[in-house]
Every structure is written in C-alpha cells, then in structure tokens.
Amino acid sequence: MPFLILLSIIVFWIILYFVIKVAVKNAIIEAREESTNKEGYTIAKTTCPDCGEEHDIDFAKCPNCKKRLI
User: Fold this and answer.
1) Is the separation of the CB atoms in 56 and 50 below 8 Å?
2) Tens of pLDDT along 10-52?
3) How far apart are CA 38 and CA 53, in angstroms?
4) How far apart are alpha carbons 46 and 32 in whole angstroms?
C-alpha cells in the first residue's frame, strides 16, 4: 500500500512537470527574465497593467506612469 501512494505521488509530479513545460513552450505561462542588482541579487520583473512598461516586481508604483501596483 505505501508503494502505491509513493508511486502515485511520483506520477503526479511527473505529469505536473510536463504540463508546466508544455504551457511555457506554448507561451501560456510567461517565463520572465530576472535582472541582477549591484549587490548581485536577482530581482524578478513584471509588466505594468496600465502602461505596459516592464519594471522590478518590488515597486509599489510603476516608475513610468505612477499607477499604484500593490
């Protein structure tokens, strides 16, 4: 019985891996690039829903149009 539980968990993760891989390939899920700041840390990027400009994800307001994001 524990073998079947372990096997079902492994099969679930394999299926999930391939679903995400196909979604990224077909641009259903967007793979975003990250930038590196001067300390060497990576910062994820996001796109403003109002003006469409890309900026760091940790901004509370868009640096371009000043729309509040959070």
Assistant:
1) no
2) 999 999 999 888 877 766 655 555 556 666 677 777 888 888 8
3) 22
4) 8
CA–CA separation, 42 and 29 (whole Å): 20
Max CA pair span of the chain: 58
Give the distance, in angstroms, between the CA of residue 41 and the centroid of all CA atoms in the same chain: 17
- Kindly report the pTM of this predicted structure: 0.40
* Residue 64: predicted pLDDT: 84
CA distances from 44 to 15, 34, 37 (A): 27, 5, 11
Quote the tokens at residue 60: 């509370």
